[in-house]
Every structure is written in structure tokens, then in C-alpha cells.
Amino acid sequence: MRYxxxxxxxxxxxxxxxxxxxxxxxxxxxxxxxxxxxxxxxxGEAHFVGADNxxxxxxxxxxxxxxxxxxxxLVVVPxxxxxxxxxxxxxxxxxxxxxRRAVAGSGAYQIIYFFPQLLSLVVxxxxxxxxxxxxxxxxxxxxxxxGLGGMAASWLASPSLALPAVMAVLVWSSVGxxxxxxxxxxxxxxxxxxxAAVLDGAGGWATFxxxxxxxxxxxxxxxxVYLGIAxxxxxxVVQVMTVGPGxxxxxTEVIGLSLYRNAFQYGKFGYASAMxxxxxxxxxxxxxxxxxxxxxxxxxxx
Amino acid sequence: xxxxxxxxxxxxxTAGAAVPLLSACVxxxxxxxxxxxxxxxxxxxDNPLGVKADAPLEVVIFKGGYGDDxxxxxxxxxxQKYAGAKIDHKGLQKVGVALxxxxxANTPPDVVDNTGADRLDIAVLVGAKQVSDLTTLLDAPAFDxxxxxxxxxxxxxxxxxxxxxxxxxxxxxxxTVWGLxxxxxxxxxxxxxxxxxxxxxxxxxxxIKAAGVAxxxxxxxxxxxxxxxxxxxxxxxxxxxxxxxxxxxxPNAWKAPGLVSAAEAFAELAAKGYIMAxxxxxxxxxxxxxxxxxxxxxxxxxxxxxxxQKGVTPDGFDMVMGPVPSRxxxxxxxxxxxxxxxxxxxxxxxxxxxxxxxxxxxxxLFSKQSAKAFAQSAGTLPAVAGATDGLxxxxxxxSVRDAVQTAGPETFTYRxxxxxxxxxxxxxxxxxxxxxxxxxxxxxxxxxxKAADGIAKDSSVQKYTR
Lengths: 302, 466
Fold this sequence. Notes:
The complex is a heterodimer.
Chain A: H1 2-34, H2 52-59, H3 61-94, H4 106-118, H5 121-131, H6 138-145, H7 159-187, H8 191-199, H9 204-215, H10 217-233, H11 235-241, H12 255-265, H13 269-293
Helix pairs in contact in A: 2-13, 3-7, 3-10, 3-12, 4-7, 5-11, 7-10, 10-13, 12-13
Chain B: H1 5-22, E1 57-62, H2 69-81, E2 87-92, H3 95-104, E3 111-114, H4 122-127, H5 135-139, E4 141-142, E5 145-149, H6 158-161, E6 163-164, E7 167-168, E8 171-183, H7 184-190, H8 198-210, E9 214-216, H9 224-247, H10 257-271, H11 284-292, E10 296-302, H12 305-308, E11 319-322, E12 338-347, H13 355-365, H14 368-378, H15 395-407, E13 411-412, H16 416-419, H17 421-434, H18 441-457
Parallel strand pairs in B: 1-2, 1-3, 9-10, 12-13
Antiparallel strand pairs in B: 3-12, 4-5, 6-7, 8-10, 8-11, 8-12
């Protein structure tokens, strides 16, 4: 009987395990190995070069630009997205009269906020590319129509504006999803708590600060991990939308783009694998810290 | 022992960790001795490459702007000659994605058109010994003129373009010429004459600007487009010596007076406001459309522009291409010299099963009759000399043909773009900064020189010389 149980478990698990190993773990393991070689991607042979690829990373000015830009994205995109998401979600729930009711038509707003999520990121990037067009784009057109022609700019071609322009697209495209996510979390908070807060004379900000935020902390934490991983990537938007791509002059370079260029355009798969491994550890560290950091002070609601 | 959650997970993890070490690796391709064994026939006057008549042939063609009908046309000629041959034709957009695993596994097709945005890096492919030597093909008699060797039927520079370390590895089918494009109609209506010197260009730009038209625009999202006239101008000033020094990564090659002075010329163009505002952020389609709408007078581009703009160009626009103006009176090359290079690279993989058939296919494709059919359908100059004789050409294509004829032996091309892709990226970035007034010509040459020195020092990069 005991053996039968093992056999049953093995039968249930092995097919999934084999698929996982062949298509997930084995490529990972190979990427680690390839990062120590000079594999070109077009031949069946590679030479072992030790840590040489990793040593080169530090001296690669475009890669350094990429790390800097990804770090900026990592700081800005999750914070802004979560801030806007929380603001909109709590407004949808508590922005109505008396501070404890939903605003009128909150369901419709949620659907509208969610729309960008339905578009593929590439489509989003193409559309925003048109919006940012300096001569015929919607953004400069609107600024000129409002008499703010002086603020019209070459958004994607100015080194100081290009990365913020990319960030805005990333925030715009993801904020709707987090509004819906945070709404669901706020829905889960017993309404008595809000009523009690209002009776105690708490204003909107105090209610948010002392009731809503502590009770959606877990959700925010998960959102931070997801957005952090997205900010470490950002490949699709940059590749489609920016000058160069990755420009002007490295202003919007991201690690994913450097990796792609080295692998598929320069035929340096070994070096690109080293970038991939570095990115893997960065993402892993981020996830561990984000989940560890939020482990303290869970609030029990009974 | 009954399975607990803990033991189960531990067992699974151990199994998971062990398997990748045993599984096949991407770099584990087997090395067959001679995949072509048994696929060659006897050589004769009619069959100079020794094709085995009934050996199957696999052809992979990039199916881009030119389609792949021209390639099928050549396949028909092949099967007419070798009736028993079965041809497996594949017209693809993503040649690299499809072929990379096949090169790794040593089972590539017999002939490949390695073209398109997704092509495999040819220098890497050659460095990895994946490409056959085409000398026998070039020395074979031309398909429809056996009195000439194939190599003597091609336009100037075509053989060189496919040569790596003195060995011909690819044969490029189309011939591209770079220059400045303008509307003949617009220029005639306004009484503007195409400038032959840079001083004339600046004077004309002042007139154009006064007329309310932007003198220049360029495909700002891809700064390599504005590199071409800059590097052409430098090549005219410094001659082929300058071009070779750049390609051979010689010390201080990018500090040559010709290059610095060409960079100064383009910095001046930007400083005087002769480049249409906003150009720096436009994609090639946006910039070219603005040019076709008459918002700008000149745009730099290769000879594919006319067919790319089909459907956007207004009737009677009459686009023509002019060679880049001379910078100085003491230039090494005449003003009529043009930057020209062949592209659409055909190659026969080293591990092909039927390399003789692959080369024979190329001999047929590079015949005058195939090239003529291509010129007619694609509206582009083929790499075969005289392929456009007797054809009625559009205004753009005939201006390109005339430019090639007038230039005669004075055509030139830089090879560093193909040999050292990372250097090309560094040049593009620097030029983008230069024409947006963020760096000076001196800084431009400094930072490119630094990038070139970095590649010259890098032992992991295979070097080529010319």
C-alpha cells in the first residue's frame, strides 16, 4: 500500500516535473553555463571563458546606462503606479458623500481604468509613439491648443525627457490593473471599520492612513513585486517606442534591450547570457527583499 | 517510509537538479564529417560546379519588400536543367529565428538569403565557419554568357562586399546606392539647382528656408540614415585611404581631417536650423512621408526609397537621388562618386547537404535574365551589370542607375557596419548627438575613436582587414 502510494504520486508528478525540467530548469541551467562561454549562437561549439563575460559588463558603457535606467524605473514606476492605483481605488470606494460610500458610477470607472490592460504592450507603445510625435502628436497638439506651445517638446528625442516619457507609458498601461486589484482588497475590508472611523471623526486621509492602508498591505506588497519585475524588464516599450532604440544615446537603454542586441544582433550569446544571469539575480533579490520587508505587522481582522 | 510533503519536495528537487546536467545542451551539436557526401556529380562544361542532377535542394529566401517570386523564377530554371531535382522552397520573414537552430544542429539548408531585420550576423556566421567559400562559383562561367566568369558580370564592389579575410563568402543580389533625395518637380518649380559643393548646399538651404520649406529632414529615430551622407562626404575628402583606415580600425582613423570636417559640416547644418524641427524623433516612415508632402526639400536615403514610398508619393513628385556634395575643392574623389554596396546576401552553408546545387542555384539567380526579371518586378538595381539595359525605369531608379554609371570606378563602401556591429551602434549614437547639437565635431570623433579602439583591443572580436 505504501509503495502504491509512492507510485501514484510519482505517476501524477513525473510528467509535470519532466516538462518543467526540460523547458524551464534546463534552459536556466544552460544559460548559467553559456554565460561562462563565448557561444555565438550560430555554431554547435563554444569555448569556456570563465568569468570574462561578467568582467566585461562593468566596462560596457551601454550596459551601465541600462542598469542606471532600470534602477530609476524600479524606483519610480512601482511607487507612482501604486500611489495612483491606491488613490483611485480608495476614491472609488470612499470618495462619495460622507466619506464612506463609492462615487457614483464607480463600476464604469473601473472598467475604463482597466481598458489599457486589454491592449498588448506593443500596441500601447506604438500608440504612445504617435502621441509623443513632436510635430503631429496628440500631446504637443493639446499643449499648443491650450496655449502652452512653449511646453511642447521632442519627448522621445530629448535625453532628459525620454525616460520619463517611457515611465509614463508604463504607469499608464499598468495602473488600471492595480486599481481593480486594490478595489478588490478594499472590498474585503469590513465596512464597520470605516463606519467606526467616521464616527470617531476621522477624515478621509486619516481613514486611508489608519484603516485602508494597513488592511491592504499584503496586496500592495505583491503589487510591488510584480511592478518591480516589470520595471526591471521594460524591453517591449523601449524597443518599440524609443529613438535608436534605447536612445537618444543610451538615455532609455534597459538591460533587456542590451541583452537582446548582444544576442540577436551581435551574435554574442555568451555575453548576453551573462546579462541575463545578472538580471535574474537582481530580480530574485528584489522579490526576496520586497516579500521579507513586508512580513512584519500583519493585521488580523476577525 | 510514507511520503510526507517534506520528503516529496526534497526528492523532486534532487531529481530536478540532476536532470539538466544529463540533458542535451544547446552547444552539443554533433559534427558530421561531410554532410554533402554522395551529393556531387561529374563536372562538365555544361555543369561546371558538378551538380548531382537528382539531389534535392533546399532554398530559404527572405520574403520582404521584394517578395520571393524572383527566387521561384530561378528555381524553375534550375528544375528545367536538372529535371530530377526536388526543390524545397521556403519564403520567410524571420530568417534568423528559423535558421539559428539549424546552424547549431549542423543541418542548414543548401542556400540561404540571409536578409531582413532578423538576419543572422554574417560576420559571426563566417567566424563560426558556417559559410562556404564561393570562389569556385565566382570563377565558374556565367549562366547565360559562358564566355565570362560570373565574377566579371557583377557591378563594382559586389565581390568585395561578400569577402571576409580575402575569401568570398556571400554573394549580394541587390545594389544599393546612397545619396540625397529631392523632388525634381519641386526644384524645377522653385528654380533650385542641386548643389555640387557643400558651400552651394548651405547657400541653397538658406534660399529653401526663406521659401518656408525645411531644407533637410532625416529619419531621426534611426540615426544611421544621417550617418550615410556624413561618411560619404568624408570618404570623398579623404579618399579610399580614409575608408580603409576606418574599416581596418587603424589608430586615430576617426580623427582624420576628412571625417572631422564632414562632422563639422553636419553640425553646421543643424546649428543653422536647416534640419526640420522634430526630425530627431521621427521614424523613417514619418520623416519620409513629411518629405513627400513637401515639408522638407532633402532627405538622405538609400536607393530603396522610391519603392518604399510607393503609395505615399504624390503623382508627378519625380523623386531623384543626387550624390553627396563635395566638402573641399581638393577632395580625393569626384563629387559624382557614390557610396554603393550590394545587399540581400546569399550564402551556401558550410554544412549544406547539396552545396554544389546551392552554388548552381546562385549561378542561375545571378544570370542576366533572372536579374532583369527582378529589376522589373522589384524596381531595384540588381548586382548584375547591365541588368536594367533596355528597361523603362521610374525617375528614382533611373537616377540611381545614372549615378552608378557616372561614378564609374569611383564607388566606395564602408565595411565596419558589417564587420563590427557594436561600432556601428556607437557611430549612430554619436551622429544622433552631433546633429542634435549636443556634442561637437571634435567630441564626435573622440568618442567614436574610443569605441573603435575598444574593439581593436578586444581579443574576443574577430578582426577583418581590406
